[in-house]
Amino acid sequence: MDAGDAAGRLVRPFTLTRGRTRPSRADFTLISTVTAVDPPPAAAARCQPEHTRILRLCAEPVAVAELAARLDLPVSVVVILLCDLLEAGRITVRPPRPVSRTAPDLDLLQKVRDGLGRL
Question: Are the C-beta atoms of residues 63 and 32 closer than 8 Å to each other?
């Protein structure tokens, strides 16, 4: 879906962010997981249509990069909109899980390699 309305008119990204070019927070990476808060906070302000679309997509946990792709918007624009929702208490954000620094299971890797070789 593009950043246009039903009549096909283009909505510029800076319009969606109300002229903001930088996020107000640094909580988001491309692989941060975002989830809508359910039920929404009682004092939650009415959302813009773009915020509502994001909340619908975040009913289940979703990565920031995937949200941007589904919305067909630049990641920078999506992050600014996510900051709005986070500050309003409408979403939660989880940083990526750290990768384990343990040695790989060489036996498992060998089995995978052998299986791929048989394909």
Answer: yes
